[in-house]
Design a protein that fits this description.
Blueprint (H helix, E strand, L loop, with lengths): L9 E10 L10 E8 L4 E7 L12 E8 L7 E3 L4 E13 L7 E11 L11 E6 L2 E5 L13 E2 L1
Antiparallel strand pairs: 1-2, 1-6, 2-3, 3-4, 5-6, 6-7, 7-8, 8-9, 9-10
Length: 153
């Protein structure tokens, strides 16, 4: 199967959010997954309490309201005393066409991580994200989320 590229590039960031006293959600420190289309002001965002250090681990999490695009590259305090963020991993890739409007499919082709974090992720990998699950796989396969091992929300 040949995948159709929907957008030329997508920017990816995995951000560690150390929460402050005024964060609206009742959660502790967590990780935000941001995957931004190249020309949008706000980007799709997901949150998890942990991150997969390698492929095929299950993790709980949730789909958040879209975040402002600048959080793809920003590190520092979050306004109104909502905490502090540091980027853990970041990179680029592309969005792959998908028939399910509630599922996002990305091929990340160029990424790096902060040297203080360690991951066993391949150089190029796929992320499939829906309201219920996040999936990371190294191989190209059908965009059907049901056919992939899952990191469940």
């Amino acid at each position: 199967m040949n995948d159709a590229i929907e957008d030329d590039t997508v920017t990816f960031a995995l951000v560690h959010h150390v929460v402050g006293p005024n964060l609206e959600r009742d959660v502790g420190d967590h990780f935000d997954w941001l995957l931004g289309d190249s020309d949008k002001e706000h980007v799709p965002t997901w949150s998890s309490m942990m991150i997969p250090r390698s492929l095929d681990q299950s993790i709980p999490g949730c789909w958040l309201p879209d975040h402002r695009r600048h959080y793809l590259t920003y590190e520092g305090p979050v306004g109104r005393d909502r905490g502090h963020v540091n980027r853990v991993a970041w990179g680029r890739g592309y969005k792959v066409k998908n028939r399910d409007p509630d599922t996002f499919l990305y091929q990340l082709t160029d990424w790096t991580c902060d040297p203080s974090w360690t991951f066993d992720w391949p150089p190029s990998f796929r992320i499939i994200i829906s309201r219920q699950k996040l999936i990371i796989r190294s191989r190209k396969a059908s965009p059907s989320a049901d056919s992939w091992p899952m990191l469940r929300w």
